[in-house]
């Protein structure tokens, strides 16, 4: 959520932000509602001041033994006027709140300007693209041939975009999760957390998924929602808290299943592990001060990159342009891993700085070390990594002509030393 005072004092900045994002928003209505609310509040305040002043005069008049019926009658009228103003003020405040929840974050000045993903900027790349002596296959063909990915039975059990993992496939999923958690907790300094995968509406509003993205979420019958990412419960851990500055930054990681309807992706990525309704992900979340949040974004991105480097999977880091930036993000780096079977890079992690956007919605504050008024923290998160997409990249990059897949050295200790996944005989 954006500070209403900033919107009032610098509406041109918000308007420019909306233009850069290529989105529309009733900014004039929001400003008008704010002006109406201030006018009504001032009117109510003046009436209350009048009532207080006249009430004192009535008390003095009564003590003097003089009649005050006219003044008392007038104050009843003033009380009715105040009472009538309260719902008017409340209705403006409710509409303002609803509009603020729909207003996207302001992009950081360093975010590239652009209308769509085609104008994203490649910041750096890592690893060499492997040259194959044969035509590389996509991961869904590899996984089915190895009898570790079963899309047909996933569809039978639940529907399209669900998968069953057999044998080494299930072990590989578990190995990737444990490898990622070990790397982030033992080397990068994150604290591991286990959270519920069902959350309330307040948690989703706090991180920006509600109300805007309700169509992408799975809701139960008792106002609970399946999480689309561990970002939601982990960020809300400190909801309504004031954190001491000396504890910041806080670095958390969590492995959870994630659930998304993928409502806007009909017909896209219908095959394979790229766009599933249920998938595992290791999430990294940071709480920090405004002064250090962009340094922490670089660290967060590097921590996610380390997973791909250890697995020897080539990738590129992409700075998202304003037109491709997520609703709540002020700046985002995507990690895109190379998939030779598809001949393209695909996103495997988004690392974002939300500045105070989420913290203001939640809210979460910190107390400066020298004392003074509490300020909103800056929140950051990123995938470290999306497990299914990492598995897809591993299968495609490490495939062999005989149909086997070589296990990256960093992952072998998590698979009892297994060096190669062989096709069934």
Short description:
The protein has 425 residues and is an alpha+beta fold.
Q: What's the structural blueprint in terms of helices and strands?
A:
Blueprint: H1 4-9, H2 11-21, H3 27-63, H4 69-102, E1 121-126, H5 139-145, E2 149-150, H6 151-157, E3 164-165, H7 168-186, E4 191-192, E5 198-200, H8 201-207, E6 218-219, E7 224-226, H9 231-235, E8 241-244, E9 250-259, E10 278-288, H10 293-310, E11 315-319, E12 331-339, E13 344-353, H11 357-361, E14 364-367, E15 375-376, E16 378-386, H12 387-397, E17 405-406, E18 420-421
Parallel strand pairs: 4-9, 8-14
Antiparallel strand pairs: 1-11, 2-3, 5-7, 6-7, 9-10, 10-16, 11-12, 12-13, 13-16, 14-15, 17-18
Helix pairs in contact: 3-4, 5-12, 7-12
């Amino acid at each position: 959520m954006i500070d209403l005072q900033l919107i009032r004092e610098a509406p041109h900045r918000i308007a420019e932000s909306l233009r850069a994002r290529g989105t529309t928003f009733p900014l004039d209505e929001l400003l008008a509602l704010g002006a109406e609310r201030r006018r009504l509040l001032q009117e109510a305040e003046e009436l209350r001041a009048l009532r207080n002043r006249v009430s004192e005069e009535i008390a003095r008049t009564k003590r003097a033994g003089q009649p005050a019926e006219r003044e008392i009658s007038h104050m009843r009228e003033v009380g009715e006027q105040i009472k009538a103003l309260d719902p008017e003020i409340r209705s403006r405040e409710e509409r303002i709140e609803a509009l603020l929840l729909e207003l996207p974050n302001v992009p950081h000045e360093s975010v590239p300007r652009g209308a769509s993903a085609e104008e994203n900027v490649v910041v750096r790349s890592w690893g060499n693209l492997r040259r194959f002596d044969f035509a590389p296959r996509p991961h869904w063909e590899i996984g089915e041939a190895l009898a570790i990915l079963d899309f047909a039975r996933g569809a039978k059990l639940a529907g399209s975009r669900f998968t069953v993992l057999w044998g080494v496939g299930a072990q590989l999923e578990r190995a990737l999760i444990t490898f990622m958690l070990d790397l982030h907790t033992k080397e990068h300094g994150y604290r591991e957390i286990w959270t519920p995968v069902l959350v309330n509406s307040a948690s989703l509003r706090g991180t920006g998924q509600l109300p805007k993205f309700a169509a992408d979420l799975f809701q139960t019958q008792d106002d609970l929602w399946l999480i689309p990412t561990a970002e939601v419960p982990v960020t809300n851990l400190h909801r309504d808290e004031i954190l001491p500055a000396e504890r910041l930054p806080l670095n958390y990681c969590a492995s959870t299943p994630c659930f998304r309807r993928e409502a806007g992706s009909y017909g896209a990525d219908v095959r394979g592990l790229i766009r599933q309704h249920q998938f595992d992900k290791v999430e990294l979340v940071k709480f920090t001060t405004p002064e250090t949040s962009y340094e922490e974004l670089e660290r967060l991105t590097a921590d996610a990159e380390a997973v791909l480097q250890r697995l020897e999977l080539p990738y590129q880091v992409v700075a998202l342009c304003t037109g491709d930036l997520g609703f709540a993000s002020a700046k985002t780096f995507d990690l895109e891993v190379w998939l030779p079977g598809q001949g393209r890079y695909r996103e495997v992690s988004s690392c974002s700085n939300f500045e105070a956007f989420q913290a203001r919605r939640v809210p979460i504050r910190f107390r400066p070390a020298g004392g003074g008024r509490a300020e909103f923290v800056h929140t950051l998160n990123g995938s470290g990594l999306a497990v299914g997409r990492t598995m897809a990249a591993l299968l495609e990059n490490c495939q062999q002509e005989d149909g086997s897949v070589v296990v990256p050295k960093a992952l072998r200790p998590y698979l009892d030393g297994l060096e190669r996944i062989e096709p069934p005989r």
